[in-house]
Amino acid sequence: MDATVFVLITSLILLVYLVFRRKKSNLQWNAPVIPFPQEHKAILLKHVLYYTNLNSEKKKRFEFKIQEFLENCRVTGVDTDVFDLERILVASSAIIPIFNFPDWQYTNIDEVLVYPTSFNERYETAGEWNNILGMVGNGPMEGKMILSKQALHNGFDNESDKKNTAIHEFIHLIDKTDGTIDGIPSLLLEQPYTLPWLDLVHKKISDIYQNKSDINPYGATNKVEFFAVVSEYFFERPKQLKHKHPELYKNLELIFKQNLAESHKNKSSIEINRNDPCPCGSGKKYKKCCGKVLNI
Ligand SMILES: [Zn+2]
Ligand SMILES: [Zn+2]
Predict the structure, then answer these.
(1) Distance, CA 267 to ligand 2 centroid (Å)?
(2) How far apart are CA 264 and CA 214, in angstroms?
(3) What is the rounded distance in angstroms from the CA atom of residue 3 to the CA atom of residue 259?
(4) Which residues are CB-contacts of 137 (< 8 A; sequence separation ≥ 6)?
(5) How far is the CA of 138 from the centre of ligand 2 (A)?
(6) Residue 54 and residue 267: Cα distance in Å, rounded?
(7) Cα–Cα distance between 89 and 294 in angstroms, integer?
(8) How far is CA 11 from CA 7, 14, 18, 22, in A?
(9) Nearest ligand, CA of residue 145?
(10) Distance 268 CA to ligand 2 centre (A)
(11) CA of 282 to the centre of ligand 1 (A)
């Protein structure tokens, strides 16, 4: 065989391989191979109220999605340790907003960096203006997200402040999936609903300016931040949002395909006794299952 022909054929094979490999990694996430660990169920039960509020069939689906996310997106501590708890909180924040989109796989993230505290635009934790709690990277940071570890924990530990930084950042990432971060999640919201949504956003932002709103004033920054801020509210206090902002609630229910106000219960109203069947759905008694792992 002629040397040129050989080189040509070899490069062609290589090209076909590269194209297909890229396609595969872009479209398909690796599936989890091991069963969901018991300790991780216990972590979810203790820290992720959203999970506790799911029925046992949905819990299984949630566990799968958590595992799938962690299989395909690294969670890396920067100047701080990251344990299973942090990894599971990050994954939960990713899955909660898109839980009712069964085929959803994030294609625009491969690593979440966890910083010990808040940071500034130059990613320094000690410098000036170090009040950023989370951000979605672009440019050289494309495909990365940064979260403050403190804010990650606060988002799940405090169930009444309508704040969850990690969910906020994943909302930006979802917003970005259609190509632009513009406060309109085109992949979730169908075209005819876009204009009414924008009208409502303007009205609600002007309420914030006039001090007539209980929505975090940061939401008045622009429609992008408004969408992220009210989504935090929706996932943390769905009943309150429905009561105080029925139209906004209806829109978010439509966007996320979740009627949370119906199923949501506060931590204090969920009581598990030692001898009850474990809420993780194992069929064992709580004291012999997750209760044992949690030392209760
Ligand atoms: Zn934001
Ligand atoms: Zn259990």
Answers:
(1) 17
(2) 20
(3) 65
(4) 143, 144, 145, 146
(5) 40
(6) 13
(7) 17
(8) 6, 5, 10, 16
(9) 1
(10) 19
(11) 38
For ligand 1, the distance from its centroid to the CA atom of residue 228, given in whole angstroms, is 6
For 148, the 3-state DSSP assignment is strand
Predicted confidence pLDDT, tens digits, the chain (296 residues) = 677 776 667 676 665 555 544 444 455 788 888 899 999 999 999 999 999 999 999 999 999 999 999 999 999 999 999 999 999 999 999 999 999 998 899 989 999 999 999 999 888 888 788 889 999 988 889 999 999 999 999 999 998 899 999 999 999 999 998 888 888 877 777 777 888 899 999 999 999 999 999 999 999 999 999 999 999 999 999 999 999 999 999 999 999 999 999 888 888 777 788 888 888 888 899 989 888 877 64
**Residue 273 to residue 265: CA distance in whole angstroms:** 17
Q: Residue 41: nearest ligand to its CA?
A: 2
